[in-house]
Amino acid sequence: MTNVTKNQKISKIKAPIVDALRQAYENPTYQFHIPGHTRGGGTLPDFKKLIGAKALSVDTTDEFDNLGTLHPATGPIKEAQELAAKAFGAKKTFFLLNGSTAGNLALAMGLTKKGQKIITNRNCHRSVLTGMIISGAEPLWLIPKRFEDWGIWGNVTPESVEEMLSSHGDVSMVWITNPTYEGVVSDIKSISAICKKYKVPLIVDEAHACLWNFNKHLPTSALKLGADAVVHSLHKTGGSMSQSSMLHISENSILDTGEVERALKLLHTTSPSLILLASLDAARANLESQRGQKQLERAVKNAKYLRSEIEKMEHIHDLKPDFGYLTDVTKVFIRADGLSGKRLESILEIEFGIEVESASDAGLLILSNIGNTRQDFQYLVKCLQKIDQSNYSDICYLENKKHMPMLAPIIKKSLREAYFSEKETIPKDLAIGRISAEVIAECPPGISVLLPGELITEEHLPYLTEYDFIEVVKNK
Ligand SMILES: Cc1ncc(COP(=O)(O)O)c(C=O)c1O
Fold first, then answer.
1. pLDDT tens, residue by residue, 268-291
2. Which residues of the chain have pLDDT under 50?
3. What is the pLDDT of residues 131-164, one digit of tens each?
4. How many CB atoms lie within 10 A of CB 25?
5. Best mutation site among 100, 182, 206 for ligand 1, i.e. most ligand atoms within 8 A of its Cβ?
6. Hey, is 429 helix, strand or coil?
7. How far does the centroid of ligand 1 lie from the alpha carbon of residue 319, in Å?
8. d(C-alpha 93, C-alpha 248), whole Å
9. Domains identified in the chain and CATH numbers
10. Residues in contact with ligand 1 (CB, 6 Å cut-off)
């Protein structure tokens, strides 16, 4: 039994924003303020019918009805952030609207400066790049392992971090994505020890790992392994609503929390959605509750069940932990002999009505979520068994496009300088040999094919089949 469960048995788990919103709903006032739909009266009736009158009644923003404020955090919002900090093991937690993207932007804007060097992995999310475009910091690219058979990036090794830190005396920060989108887990404990040796702060983008602190079968969160700050997309796997995320500052962080808070205030909307904030509060409370713990246990068991069934299949394989890296069991990355990930995805969707998280060149990603049932997985297994026993072939037109950028960039100009330079838009085929002025990073996974300042080469073309034109730095 985790500490969370023990504590929760003693008292009912609090959810202050949820409670305050309920209070507001049950004690309506005459409203002469935003949002102007005024509890749904001013919207399309079909829309009201679709999402429900109650949802529109509680669609409000901070300041009203004793709900507190987000910036600065006051009232129930402050209390909910404090409860979240406790649950995730942080010194301070900020609720984020606009996803972990907002967290990464605030970390870069608040903590990095023009010209500073930041060690980051090549497969970082584009929001890390955007943050550096804002601040003017410069990435030093760590190239993680490549898992060629799986067509995905692998782990970042502690040795590669140490090598970079020892060969560049002026690094301001290390910023690692962990786990990867497909669930590959790097050795953050060792990376963190190395950062401490070099007295450099470590940020871990844990967008895909907000569940780790709530189940012993999942890897350990970087908040417990010495990272200074961590972002979590609660909306991805934690049960909150789309766009809602958290940014945590760890107990012993050497970062300036005030700078992060100031940047967040500038970046955030001034009309935060109470529904989104309440959904973060609810997600944290659910994960701490017995019910949530059981759901997470079920998600782990469902993933193990799926993996054990795949083990018996002839042509379908799942990515497992190996030397130097772990995997998050709930992220099941699979591939099928003779089929691209995209083709496998379309078979599942068109023939079986199954939608997976994403697909790339070699494989596809299945998430075992806290909301999934065993029946969901039994159906999925049955469909995969059918595919395993059939003779599906690939459709070659799907193969012309590559989906998972796995290139090491050739950098010709700084990110910020290239982004804000005089630009021109030219046909893609003429762009080879020119310097990109834009971020091209399709989501998912939001890993850049091209970033500002990068030399465009023929190798980029298979990833750019849907682009006719590219924005490049204008030649002088
Ligand atoms: C590693 C990583 N970091 C950050 C983000 C941004 O998260 P959000 O969608 O919550 O803004 C993503 C999104 O996919 C991601 O994969």
1. 999 999 999 999 999 999 999 999
2. 1, 10, 397
3. 999 999 999 999 999 999 999 999 999 999 999 9
4. 14
5. 100
6. helix
7. 21
8. 4
9. 3-288 (3.40.640.10), 300-399 (3.90.1150.10), 415-473 (3.90.105)
10. 99-101, 104, 125, 127, 177, 181, 205, 207, 233, 245, 444-446
